[in-house]
Amino acid sequence: MGKLLSLIIGEEEKPVQAIPLEHAALCANCETVFDVTGRACPVCCSEVYLNVGVALGDEETRSRVRDLVVAR
Length: 72
Ligand SMILES: [Zn+2]
Hints:
This protein is α+β, with helices and mostly antiparallel strands.
């Protein structure tokens, strides 16, 4: 929704909170799911996490996760 339209109808603009599976990580410390492109958990700053895409994704998703890890 456009910002101007939001102002006109008085609704607050909410950020989109959607994480593609290959970017999803589950923090081992506080059990928060976050976007792994941030590298560390935004809640507790832990860098110990499970790549959800590797655990739950199909072969194509796992391949994209590997590309993401190699690109670092
Ligand atoms: Zn955390």
